Amino acid sequence: MTKSSTMRPRDRTNSPAVLRVALLFHASKVYDREILTGIGDYVKQTRVAWDLFLEEDFRFRLDGIHEWEGDGIIADYDDPAVAQALTGAHVPVIAIGGSYEDPDCYPRQVPYVATDNRLLVARALEHLVEAGVTRFACYSLPESPLNRWAQERERAFSAWLLSNGAAGEIHRGLATSAPTWGSATKKLIAWLDSLPKPIGIVAVTDARARQVLQACIVANIAVPDEVAIIGIDNDTLGQHLTRIDLSSVSHGTAEMGHRAAQLLHQALSGSPVRGARVVIPPADVHRRASTARDVQHSPAVMRALYYIRQYACQGIRTEQVAETVGMSRSSLEMYFRRELKRSVHDQILQHKLEHCFALLTHTDTCIAEVARASGFRSVQYLNTVFRREVGSTPAVWRETKRTVEASRPPPPC
What we know:
By secondary structure, this protein is α/β, with parallel strands linked by helices.
């Protein structure tokens, strides 16, 4: 940031002075973007006269920050370089970052809004317990000053195991890049193969959870029956990059941004906020297929269900499922009817319909595209199946669903 890029004349009219606020975040990350959303919501709700500065290319640069002619800063303090650069800043600074067990890890005299690392990990582990898992592991990141929050989540993982009398282990793996991707995947697969099964894995981010899932697919390890996976961040974009939807714990990031903006507003208004510290709990646990375990079935059925979850919408047939499992069609059908009270074909159809329901409910995708994406060979065939299974066409079902949703009263405040 330079003077020339941010300075502009003050408003000399009777309207409130516009204050310049810099947002130092990497807006390419979902965590930072959601914090920015919370800050923006606060500005809109309170109508504070702030001119918000954010780098155009989604990064932030610290060069010349002390020369910036502004009024306040909200910054990501998970990066030690940021804390160092803003030491002695001439304007109020509000820090955002991870929580720490050691109070000395927090910046001195700087108001700080934190995500609760201890609760994030505890919520993930509690979800795995609900999924019937009794053994646990944590997939983390190599130790680094930039990954202090990951090491905090490791400590939270170990503390939870100790307090609950459970067993588990931590694996940091390698920092991944294009040249090391192959070796990193091999080492990850070797670790996964060494683990007792079934097991639940808490990944310190959704990106690390996605790596575990990809390694499981390569190594033919059934998810979630052998390895249940849950990440942290609820990166909805990343969900489009996996064959199996990943369960995840979401931060209270919007609330963090809102509280940080509130603290800066107080500081700019002359109210004392020095040294204030706020820890925000997780927002929610998002339960998806990567932890949807069914422990009541035989290994053959579990493997078949795993295959169906991945490929149901690609037009697979019963014969392909039986071949993958390694048994005859008649034998697999016998297992399915005995344990699930339905045929393999019916199970495939159920997954295809569930995908249809999701697309019809949450998107405006045309019916032809819904049919294609769900593995039905034509709109006519989809209509026939819908009439038989649901009693209406997809278009009528969507309209009815939206009418019902629209007629519901809003939740109480």
